[in-house]
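look at this:
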Amino acid sequence: MYRKVTIDLQLIEDCGTHGLAQSAKFTDMLRLHLDIKVPVAARAIRGSLFALAILATTHHGSAQNTPLISGGAGFFTSTNGGMTTYLPIIEPLIAAPLGQHVLAESRAALLEIVSPNGSNQSGYDHSHFIGLTYLQGDYLASRHFTLVGGDYLIPFNTYNDRLSPIWIGNLQDGPLIASLGTFSSGSGLGGMLRGNAIESNKYSIDYACFYSVPSSNEQFIAQRGSGGRASVYLPNQRLEAGFSYDRLLQSTRENFFGAHVWWEPKDTAFRLRSEFGRGQHAQGYWVEADYRTQRFGGLDSAIGRIEPVFRMQQTFRIDAVASDGLPSMNTQRVDFGLNYSLPHNTRILTSYARQFSASGNQNIWETGIVYRFLVPAWKGKR
């Protein structure tokens, strides 16, 4: 079961609503059991968030332990071949500190899909989905060591656990290789160790390693596997480079390799991000750059809020076994985006993409608006 929500409306258009249910795929690493009944999922989420709230209230008397409710709400559209799909979505996140060393956190997604009927039929069909993205507890032993338990996002490369929320990504669609190394569901169920191994004025090294057990629960789908990520950050150059490795330990055992490079030059609003991933059956890469100018009154000026975005990506099949979520044929895609940051944590996203493959070339036009919210669960004591 694959759970992505960053938001691959292109996949929805290609499959149709019923095709999505059959292929059990969706966009940005959201845990969506696509044939799940909404009341069942809603009860699971309400129970999880209620448990977090109860745990948090046990520390209500502490001055600095107020839980935070944050997340994003968005409305997206995607047009391909004259057919437009609409997707409103809310992605809430709660972080509840339980004392000085324990943090409980969870993220979910609630969305509606309105897509054209397939098979040359007129009109639209709609479906709604709801599910947990992750639910975990963190024990912060020190700055060098954090123990994570529960349902967590797999730390393979950077997109899955750092760029997948709708209020962070520059483009609606996630990279074509986003499913590599994430064991289909995007998350693991078990334990993870992470932290900063070494830190100095010139460099720092951080790590994350995990072990996941199998689960068929509709809200906690996971496969047995292990792996991790290590990266080096150079603060003077504002450069990060890392390596990831995962191994699937059930059914057909497979190895996954990944590498990433991020660069944000000092005193600029330019960002360069890139990843490479390789699995048993396919490999690929993506490179993305975005920029905001500070020369005309700073980043909060009318011109400074404009953000051009460019992404280039390619995937290559190693064999014909298409079990990894990547395109079934070699694919190249170029995205051109133009975003605008409004006041009060609101962004307008627009983009055009041209995709090339032996199965046919496509033009994809996408628009959207995203609002980022952040509020305390209650007024904390001073």
Notes: The CA atoms of residues 305 and 342 lie 7 Å apart. Confidence is low (pLDDT under 50) at residues 1-7, 9-41.
